[in-house]
Amino acid sequence: MEIKTFEDFILFARECEASDIHLTVGAPTVFRVHGELRKFSELRGEEDYSPVAINRMIHAMLNADQEEVINSGKDLDFSFELSTGARQRVNVFHQCGKLAATIRLLHTEIPSAEALRIPKVVQDLAKKKRGLILVTGPTGSGKTTTLASIIRLINENRACHVITIEDPIEYRYENAKATIHQREIGADVADFGSALRSALREDPDVIFVGEMRDYETISLAITAAETGHLVLATLHTTGAAETINRIIDVFPPHGQAQVRSQLSTILEAVISQTLIPTADHNGRVCAFDILLGTDAVKNLIRSEKTFQMDSIMQQSRKVGMTTFNDSIARLYDLDLISYEDAMANSNNKEELDKMLTKIQQNKLI
């Protein structure tokens, strides 16, 4: 396609199936395509934009107030829409005295749980009426998309009130059976804490917290789950045990026994995930680490034995729990990922190597 405008540039990135764009004055323009960084010049087969053009592109996204923030030396987060309705999340910052921006290309259509290969046990969490469900993983691992698919299931099947608190709003929902109100930090409300306090007075059944990033947000989310709401939230952690420990460590020492008791009462599930390139490198698939809030798990939380979580998960496969290695081995068995990418994404490579070797041997029989 011909690129004449900034909107054309964004649309080209979407055609390339990019998830992010990196604009840097004085450096190559880069797209992240299926998890890998690709230079714009190579994708286009032509020269990159000049430093002056990149500077203009970044400033073209800003209004007068945002210009003032950037000129004061601060970083800036915001979102914008194309004429097509496609939405982008942007962070503008300074590096080496020059401007740079990272643009996350958001999707307008919420994928179905089946399209995302989300396990049935995770889909069934949409039927829960109360408790805490956490989806965790590094940046760009698809946490918000997984939760959006769960909210889509709730919207399709339950007449309830859903409040989402996001920074910024990534997916827009159209009311089906549910009534959904979406609040964006900075536009509709000042911060997560204020939004959560207000949410508890707005008759919600389900509250989605875009990120539990500090003590106040975590504390309020736990309170919301304790008072009979279903709370869905994300955290930047990897693995179930680490997630539980991260939440507990946010609290002062004298309050940690109490939060253990609270978590052991309200926790429904921790779903950790990571995206792995497909074997043909034309996409990515998700591997899951799934911990369910069974009596055994809740007892480990209460008794400060979260280091035994992996063992419990391995013993509880029949009820739907799975470790990353289980999930990665399943993807490998289906020929969806390569051996190299499987091993690169494992947190226990020795164990996974044995699992993959067994799969290879079974295929030769």
Largest sheet: 7 strands, mixed
Average pLDDT score: 94
Helix content: 25-40%
Alpha-carbon distance between the termini? Answer: 49 Å
Low-confidence stretches: none
Order of the strands making up the biggest sheet: 9-8-10-11-7-12-13
Count every beta strand, where a strand is a DSSP E run of 2 or more residues.
13
**The first-level CATH class name of the largest domain:** Alpha Beta
Give the strand content. 15-25%
List the topology elements.
Layout: H1 6-15, E1 18-24, E2 30-33, E3 36-39, H2 40-44, H3 51-60, H4 64-71, E4 76-81, E5 87-95, E6 98-105, H5 120-123, E7 131-136, H6 143-157, E8 161-166, E9 179-184, H7 192-199, E10 206-209, H8 215-226, E11 230-235, H9 240-250, H10 256-266, E12 267-277, E13 284-292, H11 295-302, H12 309-315, H13 324-333, H14 339-344, H15 349-364
Parallel strand pairs: 7-11, 7-12, 8-9, 8-10, 10-11
Antiparallel strand pairs: 1-2, 1-6, 2-3, 4-5, 5-6, 12-13
Helix pairs in contact: 7-8, 9-10, 10-11, 13-15
